[in-house]
Fold this protein.
Amino acid sequence: MSAARPYVDRPIEHDEVPDRVAARAAELWGLQPASLMRRGMNALYECGDVVLRVGRATAPAHLAHELVQVIRSHGVPTVAPIDGLALDVDGVAVSAWERVVVVDAPIDWGAVGAAVRLVHTIDPGQVPDGYPVPSPTEFPWWDFESLLGEVTDLLDGPARRGLQAAIERDADWRTAVRVDPVICHGDVHPGNVLVASSGPLLIDWDLLCRAAPAWDHAMLTTYAARWGGDPAVYPAFAEGYGVDLADDELTRRLGELRNVAATLMRVGASRNDPAARHEAERRLGFWRGDPDAPVWQAQ
Protein backbone atom coordinates (compact mmCIF):
# COMPACT_ATOMS: atom_id res chain seq x y z
CA MET A 1 0.00 0.00 0.00
CA SER A 2 1.55 3.27 -1.18
CA ALA A 3 1.48 6.49 0.82
CA ALA A 4 2.11 8.81 -2.11
CA ARG A 5 -0.24 11.13 -4.00
CA PRO A 6 -3.92 10.16 -4.31
CA TYR A 7 -4.99 8.05 -7.27
CA VAL A 8 -6.14 11.10 -9.26
CA ASP A 9 -5.16 14.58 -8.10
CA ARG A 10 -5.29 16.68 -11.25
CA PRO A 11 -7.96 17.14 -13.92
CA ILE A 12 -7.76 15.54 -17.32
CA GLU A 13 -6.75 18.00 -20.02
CA HIS A 14 -9.27 19.51 -22.42
CA ASP A 15 -7.51 18.21 -25.51
CA GLU A 16 -7.75 15.28 -27.90
CA VAL A 17 -5.90 12.76 -25.70
CA PRO A 18 -8.84 11.48 -23.61
CA ASP A 19 -11.09 11.34 -26.69
CA ARG A 20 -8.46 9.35 -28.58
CA VAL A 21 -7.84 6.97 -25.67
CA ALA A 22 -11.56 6.37 -25.13
CA ALA A 23 -12.11 5.68 -28.83
CA ARG A 24 -9.15 3.29 -28.90
CA ALA A 25 -10.35 1.42 -25.79
CA ALA A 26 -13.91 1.13 -27.09
CA GLU A 27 -12.65 -0.35 -30.36
CA LEU A 28 -10.22 -2.70 -28.64
CA TRP A 29 -12.91 -4.00 -26.28
CA GLY A 30 -15.65 -4.27 -28.92
CA LEU A 31 -17.85 -1.62 -27.32
CA GLN A 32 -20.16 0.90 -28.90
CA PRO A 33 -18.44 4.14 -30.00
CA ALA A 34 -17.46 6.35 -27.05
CA SER A 35 -19.59 9.45 -26.50
CA LEU A 36 -18.36 12.10 -24.04
CA MET A 37 -20.59 12.49 -20.98
CA ARG A 38 -18.60 15.06 -19.00
CA ARG A 39 -15.12 16.16 -17.99
CA GLY A 40 -13.75 16.97 -14.57
CA MET A 41 -10.92 15.26 -12.76
CA ASN A 42 -11.68 12.43 -15.20
CA ALA A 43 -13.40 12.30 -18.56
CA LEU A 44 -16.39 9.95 -18.70
CA TYR A 45 -17.61 8.34 -21.93
CA GLU A 46 -20.76 6.37 -22.59
CA CYS A 47 -20.48 3.23 -24.69
CA GLY A 48 -23.98 1.77 -24.52
CA ASP A 49 -24.26 -0.03 -21.18
CA VAL A 50 -20.61 0.68 -20.38
CA VAL A 51 -18.96 3.85 -19.07
CA LEU A 52 -15.27 4.49 -19.70
CA ARG A 53 -13.34 6.54 -17.16
CA VAL A 54 -10.21 8.28 -18.46
CA GLY A 55 -7.84 10.16 -16.17
CA ARG A 56 -4.28 11.02 -15.19
CA ALA A 57 -3.84 8.36 -12.53
CA THR A 58 -0.85 7.87 -10.27
CA ALA A 59 -1.14 4.06 -10.37
CA PRO A 60 -2.12 1.46 -13.00
CA ALA A 61 -5.71 1.45 -14.22
CA HIS A 62 -6.42 -2.13 -13.16
CA LEU A 63 -5.87 -1.19 -9.51
CA ALA A 64 -9.02 0.96 -9.59
CA HIS A 65 -10.97 -2.22 -10.40
CA GLU A 66 -9.20 -4.24 -7.73
CA LEU A 67 -9.88 -1.59 -5.10
CA VAL A 68 -13.60 -1.44 -5.87
CA GLN A 69 -13.83 -5.22 -5.75
CA VAL A 70 -12.49 -5.05 -2.18
CA ILE A 71 -14.90 -2.24 -1.33
CA ARG A 72 -17.88 -4.13 -2.75
CA SER A 73 -16.87 -7.25 -0.83
CA HIS A 74 -17.46 -5.25 2.36
CA GLY A 75 -21.04 -4.52 1.33
CA VAL A 76 -20.44 -0.93 0.23
CA PRO A 77 -22.85 -0.05 -2.61
CA THR A 78 -20.90 1.36 -5.54
CA VAL A 79 -20.61 1.03 -9.31
CA ALA A 80 -19.40 -2.36 -10.53
CA PRO A 81 -16.21 -2.61 -12.59
CA ILE A 82 -16.12 -4.65 -15.78
CA ASP A 83 -13.37 -7.16 -15.15
CA GLY A 84 -10.47 -7.17 -17.56
CA LEU A 85 -11.32 -3.87 -19.21
CA ALA A 86 -8.61 -1.57 -17.90
CA LEU A 87 -5.45 -0.31 -19.55
CA ASP A 88 -2.85 2.44 -19.48
CA VAL A 89 -2.11 4.25 -22.72
CA ASP A 90 -0.69 7.62 -23.73
CA GLY A 91 -0.03 8.49 -20.09
CA VAL A 92 -3.62 8.05 -18.93
CA ALA A 93 -5.59 5.26 -17.29
CA VAL A 94 -8.83 4.04 -18.83
CA SER A 95 -11.20 1.63 -17.12
CA ALA A 96 -14.67 0.27 -17.90
CA TRP A 97 -17.63 0.32 -15.50
CA GLU A 98 -21.24 -0.77 -15.61
CA ARG A 99 -23.49 2.11 -16.57
CA VAL A 100 -25.93 3.03 -13.79
CA VAL A 101 -29.50 3.97 -14.62
CA VAL A 102 -30.09 6.95 -12.34
CA VAL A 103 -33.58 7.38 -10.92
CA ASP A 104 -35.27 10.63 -9.97
CA ALA A 105 -35.31 10.18 -6.21
CA PRO A 106 -33.72 11.97 -3.25
CA ILE A 107 -30.50 10.63 -1.78
CA ASP A 108 -31.02 8.39 1.24
CA TRP A 109 -28.32 9.95 3.38
CA GLY A 110 -28.81 7.42 6.14
CA ALA A 111 -27.82 4.70 3.68
CA VAL A 112 -24.81 6.76 2.60
CA GLY A 113 -23.73 7.13 6.23
CA ALA A 114 -24.03 3.37 6.71
CA ALA A 115 -21.91 2.83 3.58
CA VAL A 116 -19.18 5.17 4.82
CA ARG A 117 -19.16 3.31 8.14
CA LEU A 118 -18.45 0.10 6.20
CA VAL A 119 -15.61 1.82 4.34
CA HIS A 120 -14.08 2.76 7.68
CA THR A 121 -13.98 -0.91 8.70
CA ILE A 122 -11.78 -1.98 5.78
CA ASP A 123 -8.40 -3.29 6.88
CA PRO A 124 -5.66 -1.20 5.22
CA GLY A 125 -3.91 -4.46 4.39
CA GLN A 126 -6.77 -5.33 2.04
CA VAL A 127 -6.14 -2.33 -0.20
CA PRO A 128 -4.48 -3.61 -3.40
CA ASP A 129 -0.72 -3.29 -3.31
CA GLY A 130 0.25 -0.19 -5.24
CA TYR A 131 -3.04 1.67 -4.87
CA PRO A 132 -2.16 4.96 -3.14
CA VAL A 133 -3.72 5.65 0.26
CA PRO A 134 -1.99 8.84 1.42
CA SER A 135 -2.71 10.96 4.43
CA PRO A 136 -4.80 13.97 3.38
CA THR A 137 -1.92 16.07 4.67
CA GLU A 138 -0.29 15.19 1.33
CA PHE A 139 -3.14 16.65 -0.76
CA PRO A 140 -1.71 19.68 -2.61
CA TRP A 141 -4.96 21.65 -2.29
CA TRP A 142 -4.59 21.42 1.51
CA ASP A 143 -1.22 23.22 1.42
CA PHE A 144 -2.94 26.41 2.49
CA GLU A 145 0.04 28.70 2.81
CA SER A 146 1.15 27.88 -0.73
CA LEU A 147 -2.35 28.28 -2.15
CA LEU A 148 -2.82 31.58 -0.34
CA GLY A 149 0.50 32.82 -1.67
CA GLU A 150 -0.46 31.92 -5.23
CA VAL A 151 -3.62 34.05 -5.18
CA THR A 152 -2.69 36.82 -2.74
CA ASP A 153 -2.71 39.42 -5.54
CA LEU A 154 -6.36 38.53 -6.26
CA LEU A 155 -7.51 39.08 -2.67
CA ASP A 156 -8.52 42.27 -0.90
CA GLY A 157 -7.34 42.85 2.66
CA PRO A 158 -10.48 41.74 4.55
CA ALA A 159 -10.81 38.52 2.53
CA ARG A 160 -7.11 37.69 2.97
CA ARG A 161 -7.29 38.29 6.70
CA GLY A 162 -10.41 36.14 7.07
CA LEU A 163 -8.85 33.24 5.20
CA GLN A 164 -5.55 33.55 7.06
CA ALA A 165 -7.35 33.60 10.42
CA ALA A 166 -9.10 30.33 9.61
CA ILE A 167 -5.84 28.72 8.49
CA GLU A 168 -4.12 29.79 11.71
CA ARG A 169 -6.85 28.75 14.16
CA ASP A 170 -7.08 25.30 12.56
CA ALA A 171 -3.34 24.83 12.12
CA ASP A 172 -3.11 21.66 14.24
CA TRP A 173 -5.32 19.68 11.86
CA ARG A 174 -2.28 17.97 10.35
CA THR A 175 -1.50 16.26 13.65
CA ALA A 176 -5.08 15.55 14.69
CA VAL A 177 -6.17 14.01 11.38
CA ARG A 178 -3.49 11.32 11.71
CA VAL A 179 -4.79 10.05 15.08
CA ASP A 180 -6.53 6.64 14.91
CA PRO A 181 -6.79 6.71 11.10
CA VAL A 182 -9.14 4.55 9.06
CA ILE A 183 -9.60 4.02 5.35
CA CYS A 184 -11.66 7.01 4.19
CA HIS A 185 -13.56 7.59 0.96
CA GLY A 186 -11.96 11.01 0.97
CA ASP A 187 -14.57 13.08 -0.86
CA VAL A 188 -18.08 12.49 0.49
CA HIS A 189 -20.49 15.01 -1.01
CA PRO A 190 -23.71 14.92 -3.09
CA GLY A 191 -21.83 14.89 -6.40
CA ASN A 192 -20.25 11.56 -5.48
CA VAL A 193 -23.55 9.77 -4.85
CA LEU A 194 -25.67 8.22 -7.61
CA VAL A 195 -29.23 7.14 -6.89
CA ALA A 196 -30.10 3.84 -8.56
CA SER A 197 -33.32 1.85 -8.21
CA SER A 198 -31.53 -0.20 -5.52
CA GLY A 199 -30.60 2.90 -3.53
CA PRO A 200 -27.63 5.30 -3.33
CA LEU A 201 -24.24 4.32 -4.72
CA LEU A 202 -21.09 5.91 -3.33
CA ILE A 203 -18.77 6.61 -6.25
CA ASP A 204 -15.36 8.12 -7.11
CA TRP A 205 -12.62 6.54 -4.99
CA ASP A 206 -9.80 8.68 -6.40
CA LEU A 207 -9.13 10.46 -3.08
CA LEU A 208 -9.03 7.35 -0.91
CA CYS A 209 -6.87 8.15 2.10
CA ARG A 210 -6.04 7.21 5.69
CA ALA A 211 -7.38 9.72 8.16
CA ALA A 212 -9.48 10.17 11.26
CA PRO A 213 -13.17 9.33 10.57
CA ALA A 214 -13.98 13.04 10.85
CA TRP A 215 -12.46 13.49 7.38
CA ASP A 216 -15.51 11.83 5.78
CA HIS A 217 -17.99 13.78 7.91
CA ALA A 218 -16.57 17.28 7.59
CA MET A 219 -18.02 18.46 4.28
CA LEU A 220 -21.58 17.46 5.11
CA THR A 221 -21.48 19.32 8.43
CA THR A 222 -21.08 22.60 6.47
CA TYR A 223 -23.32 21.60 3.57
CA ALA A 224 -26.40 23.50 4.76
CA ALA A 225 -24.72 26.64 6.09
CA ARG A 226 -22.22 27.27 3.30
CA TRP A 227 -23.52 25.36 0.27
CA GLY A 228 -27.26 25.85 0.68
CA GLY A 229 -27.99 22.17 1.22
CA ASP A 230 -30.84 20.60 3.14
CA PRO A 231 -30.16 20.90 6.90
CA ALA A 232 -31.47 17.35 7.32
CA VAL A 233 -28.64 15.84 5.28
CA TYR A 234 -25.92 15.59 7.92
CA PRO A 235 -28.20 14.38 10.75
CA ALA A 236 -29.44 11.59 8.46
CA PHE A 237 -25.89 10.71 7.43
CA ALA A 238 -24.76 10.65 11.07
CA GLU A 239 -27.68 8.44 12.07
CA GLY A 240 -26.80 5.96 9.34
CA TYR A 241 -23.13 6.11 10.26
CA GLY A 242 -23.90 5.56 13.92
CA VAL A 243 -21.99 8.55 15.31
CA ASP A 244 -22.77 12.27 15.10
CA LEU A 245 -19.60 14.36 14.81
CA ALA A 246 -21.25 17.73 14.26
CA ASP A 247 -19.90 19.02 17.59
CA ASP A 248 -16.50 17.34 17.28
CA GLU A 249 -13.65 19.87 17.22
CA LEU A 250 -11.62 18.12 14.52
CA THR A 251 -14.68 17.79 12.30
CA ARG A 252 -15.38 21.50 12.70
CA ARG A 253 -11.80 22.38 11.79
CA LEU A 254 -11.75 20.11 8.76
CA GLY A 255 -15.08 21.48 7.58
CA GLU A 256 -13.81 25.05 7.83
CA LEU A 257 -10.55 24.23 6.08
CA ARG A 258 -12.34 22.38 3.31
CA ASN A 259 -14.18 25.64 2.67
CA VAL A 260 -10.90 27.54 2.73
CA ALA A 261 -9.53 25.16 0.08
CA ALA A 262 -12.70 25.45 -2.02
CA THR A 263 -12.42 29.24 -1.92
CA LEU A 264 -8.73 29.43 -2.77
CA MET A 265 -9.11 27.01 -5.68
CA ARG A 266 -12.03 28.99 -7.11
CA VAL A 267 -10.10 32.24 -6.74
CA GLY A 268 -7.13 30.62 -8.46
CA ALA A 269 -9.36 29.42 -11.31
CA SER A 270 -10.65 32.95 -11.79
CA ARG A 271 -7.21 34.13 -12.91
CA ASN A 272 -7.61 32.43 -16.30
CA ASP A 273 -11.36 31.85 -16.29
CA PRO A 274 -13.44 35.02 -15.96
CA ALA A 275 -16.56 32.89 -15.50
CA ALA A 276 -15.12 31.60 -12.19
CA ARG A 277 -14.83 35.11 -10.78
CA HIS A 278 -18.51 35.41 -9.88
CA GLU A 279 -18.44 32.31 -7.69
CA ALA A 280 -15.07 33.35 -6.23
CA GLU A 281 -16.67 36.61 -5.14
CA ARG A 282 -19.58 34.79 -3.53
CA ARG A 283 -17.14 32.78 -1.45
CA LEU A 284 -14.90 35.70 -0.54
CA GLY A 285 -17.86 37.60 0.87
CA PHE A 286 -18.11 35.04 3.64
CA TRP A 287 -14.43 35.39 4.57
CA ARG A 288 -14.78 39.18 4.66
CA GLY A 289 -17.34 38.68 7.41
CA ASP A 290 -20.31 39.87 5.37
CA PRO A 291 -23.41 38.82 7.38
CA ASP A 292 -25.43 38.73 4.15
CA ALA A 293 -22.88 36.67 2.18
CA PRO A 294 -24.76 34.28 -0.15
CA VAL A 295 -24.44 30.52 0.05
CA TRP A 296 -21.96 29.00 -2.36
CA GLN A 297 -22.48 27.04 -5.55
CA ALA A 298 -20.51 24.10 -6.89
CA GLN A 299 -19.13 26.18 -9.76
Summary: The mean pLDDT is 95. Residues 249-270 form the longest helix (22 residues). The two ends are 34 Å apart (CA to CA).
